[in-house]
Amino acid sequence: MARTWTPNELGALDHGLREDDLALRDTTRNFLTERVRPHLPGWYTDGAAPVRELAQEFGRLGVLGMHLTGYGCAGASPTAYGLVCAEIEAADSGLRSLVSVQGSLSMQAIHSFGSEEQKQEWLPQMAAGEAIGCFGLTEPDHGSDPAGMRTRARREGSDWVLDGTKMWISNGSVASVAVVWAQTEDGIRGFVVPTDTPGFSAPEIGGKLSLRASVTSELVLEGVRLPESAVLPGVVGLKGPLSCLTEARFGIIFGAMGAARDSLETAISYADSRVQFDRPIAGFQLTQAKLADLTADYVTGMLLALHLARLKEAGTLAPAQVSLGKLNNVRRALAIARECRSVLGANGISADYSPLRHAANLESVLTYEGTTEMHTLVVGQALTGHAAFR
């Protein structure tokens, strides 16, 4: 039989990457293989994963807020962060969501806009996984249009009092701290809210058909009283939360391709072992056509991700380019996972195989942190100069 290549080898995707970035990727891959992958089918079917324990494991691994500098964070390159996101999502999108919400949303907000006291109090324990964070922006009636949020913060003497509801919040029920965005007389402001503050609750959302190995919650704020020191002093307006979302979307560009790669490798392995008509189905032209087309889509998506990482390292990556990456790569990954399921036939609906789990998870990734429609319009505006949001 002729030499076989993995999708990464065929695309020569490691070419030109730094050894230290590859080492971080490989360390993450080894950890997931040994400690996480054997449990994923059970966590998904049971709709429960040991999130607090996983956060501590990821903290010891050094991947929580790894792209940030100082306060216990590694200061890793964008490429390293992207490669790590790909490895984590190759295991499960819910785990990458845990890491992204912790590092690129909650920690990013405090690191970019927080006071020195807020940074010293929260970032080291969040980097270690000892404290989990969540990011309260989306509301029941305001997802793609966060400017319409109804959560309010009003002054009472020297304090702030918050009232409102946030929805679809990853990590909410297990978080020690929530970064909550609210309307004030001065515009939208961010608040660092310890979750044991009276009036704060985070009921978990059940009945999910996607991201079942993660915690998704509602945040309810009823007269939550906070001192002036709880305000993020470094930003007013939507540019604060939107800049954090841009950071998280960058990780998704890589992460989605990790789910695609795992689906593809699973389908290739299965096709080689599944015998029909006295030969492996990998030897049939229709199966090979699927695998060839899917590999071309995967390699193209990874090349885009790596190119955007180089732009980010050069300091020239624009939000519209991040939107292009998320739009392209999540759609490609979802299509790859679905088609890989078809290679597995009836066995593809079993939790023993990953493609359908990845496809179900990617349905959420397609929606959160900017829907396909919103990123399409961002790219459209970049190309034409006309905003079509309203």
Automatic annotation (TrEMBL):
Cofactors named for this entry: FAD
Domain Acyl-CoA oxidase/dehydrogenase middle: 134-224
All residue ranges annotated as the Acyl-CoA dehydrogenase/oxidase N-terminal domain in the record: 19-130
Leader sequence segment: none
Acyl-CoA dehydrogenase/oxidase C-terminal domain location: 238-383
Keywords of this entry: FAD, Flavoprotein, Oxidoreductase, Transit peptide
Matching InterPro entries: Acyl-CoA_Oxase/DH_mid-dom, Acyl-CoA_Oxase/DH_mid-dom_sf, AcylCo_DH-like_C, AcylCo_DH/oxidase_C, AcylCoA_DH/ox_N, AcylCoA_DH/ox_N_sf, AcylCoA_DH/oxidase_NM_dom_sf, Glutaryl-CoA_DH_mitochondrial
Pfam families, per the entry: Acyl-CoA_dh_1, Acyl-CoA_dh_M, Acyl-CoA_dh_N
Family: Belongs to the acyl-CoA dehydrogenase family.
The protein's name in its UniProt record: Acyl-CoA dehydrogenase family protein
Species this chain originates from: Ornithinimicrobium faecis
